[in-house]
Design a protein that fits this description.
9 helices, binds flavin mononucleotide, alpha/beta
Length: about 300
Amino acid sequence: MADLSVKICGIDFKNPIIPASGVFGYGHEYEELFPLEKLGGIATKGTTLHRRTGNIAPRIAETPSGMLNSVGLQNPGIDHFIDKELPYLLGKNLVILANIAGSTTEECVQVAEKLENTDVHMIELNISCPNVKHGGAAFGTSCDLAAEVTKQVRKATSKPLIVKLSPNVTSIAEIAKAVESEGADAVSLINTLLGMRININTGRPILHNNVGGLSGPAVFPVAVRMVWQVANAVNIPVIGMGGVSSGKDAIELMMAGASAVQVGAAIFTDPYAPIKIIDEMNEFLDSKNISSVRDIIGSVKPW
Ligand SMILES: Cc1cc2nc3c(=O)[nH]c(=O)nc-3n(C[C@H](O)[C@H](O)[C@H](O)COP(=O)(O)O)c2cc1C
């Protein structure tokens, strides 16, 4: 069996597979299916300062090889997370990435401050949410806004800070460089691609929010391209995600430059997907006589 362990920002992961934020809640439901300890880590549901009920349904639409969602960051708020969810998760032998979000820089800072005195291992700052102070432009679509929120959250936390990037930009590498320069310890990508579907019988968008985020196998080549571009642009670790549904996909994303891989929508079609992906990675590495998964990180040989 190959060595699947990786180290990111000084934190040891027993393997590089992490359920992505928003598809795994806080883990409880999946514990009935397999021991959470089998995972490298968990990225918890995006959590804000106060409880949010999310967007009005319909919030999910099927697409060819993927799905659109406009859940709208439904979550119980950071105090509930710290009091009720985190103690349970910290009892498991795996890395906890607390995914946080906010509508203003100040909210992001306050959420990070609340986590400072907990034992959560890493913070994953989602900068894809709209910044109400800047007319709803997502933090993650402007280098200046992305840099500013990173700078302020960096000051608020001593924990490893992963900034999660939006793919809805002209140059994701430029955004990655901007957050690196303000103290991000790692970046994760990609969040969902903005999309839309219309019910042609009613003439109404399928999602009540009109637009939503595309994820699933349809976005995989975009994720590979963006992970590769970002890994070549920054000197901090890259955590890859977007459409991964097999061990071979995870290997491909790591060859593109990812040090670890998150699995999102695939978990909705097969809740055992992360476990199967870990097994398939092992099989692939053994078949190629590669003793450590670390040897494949960034190993793509571009033409
Ligand atoms: C239903 C759903 C909810 C999501 N919620 C969040 C969230 O709260 N925070 C976040 O950073 N990303 C969220 N995401 C984005 C995923 O973490 C991931 O970046 C994206 O779906 C791409 O990966 P995938 O194609 O493997 O799903 C969500 C995705 C889905 C499908």
